[in-house]
Amino acid sequence: MLRVLVVFGTRPEAIKMAPLIGEMRRHPDRFHCRVAVTAQHREMLDQVLQLFQIAPDHDLDIMRPGQSLFDITRRALAGLEQVIKRERPDLVLVHGDTTTTFVAALAAFYFQIPVGHVEAGLRTGDKYSPFPEEINRHLTAVLADLHFAPTASARDNLLREGINPEKIFVTGNTVIDALLATVKADYRFADPVLAGIDFQCRRVLLVTTHRRENLGEPMREIYLALRDIVALYPDVEVVFPVHRNPAVREVVQEILGRSPRVHLIEPLPYQDFVNLMNRCYLVLTDSGGLQEEAPALGKPVLVLRNTTERPEAVRAGTVRLVGTTREAVFKETRLLLEDAARYRQMAEAVNPYGDGQASRRICQALLYCFGLGDKPPEPFK
């Protein structure tokens, strides 16, 4: 039996680790799976834990008002020292690019315990974009022993950095596993704003922004473009779950607070959010994960950033990198609202990020690497 300690701290990590935890727990004769959360995000994390019925074995509860990256790093490292000392797992499994990810890998290294990195190999090439995620990815890759790359491009990034090819497995992304298990054709929204939208007659733009590098003038430009779009198209509505960061909320309210057909709502539980994404017309976001999720539902994505660590989506044509200027965001949104062929080309492009089997592949790879399985998984293509 393989003793695995899964560590995460934010809502996106929880979403992407949930199907993997579920897969391990379906095989209790092969895996002894324990879960530790730092809770560097609290409320949003708890929604996902409840949805996927995950009760953490260790909850560090480190989130504090106004916390800095220094605070998160210090408290997470101290807490994980005690967790790992108690659990003594065969492997510590981390996900993606958060501060929790890097710190958990570092803590495991201090105990000389192997690290498995899920969603490994994503790169933009700019150490400050996204910040601090890009460097967290690099640092975690240096510390990791097993690398679960979602795509062949991510694998190639790792190979260029000198990672042993025998330690890299192309698995697809676990977020597609979670997504496909959660979207329901007959889903009913409890939120009265969402329940009141006529998705058949309205073209709904789903918008999210939260990146540190977009705070300030870039966000102002994005929101002004959205205001222009709504004013031009009477059948367009915007649903904008607003991030809790006060620096985001202040500018959103200033520019969009009085705009007709713009719904500024609280961050949604994951189940509501993905079912909203399934019914929207178009996604505008600076998120990384939505570049993977929305195309799986046939939704074009306009990425409100100047760089992306998911170039596969750009090459596949499922997303378009548009930057943050008012002119560019307005122009690209308008093109998809007016050019049906262009919209259809993006909506029908093949999503390069997964087939819903990533968790199974990762578990098979773990068993193989620890001598508990006969063969490695077939790579996702």
UniProtKB/TrEMBL annotation:
Keywords: Isomerase
Chain segments annotated as transmembrane: none
Domain UDP-N-acetylglucosamine 2-epimerase: 27-366
Top-level taxon of origin: Bacteria
UniProt cross-references to Gene3D superfamilies, sorted A to Z: Glycogen Phosphorylase B
PANTHER family (UniProt xref): UDP-N-ACETYLGLUCOSAMINE 2-EPIMERASE
Name by which UniProt lists this protein: UDP-N-acetylglucosamine 2-epimerase (non-hydrolyzing)
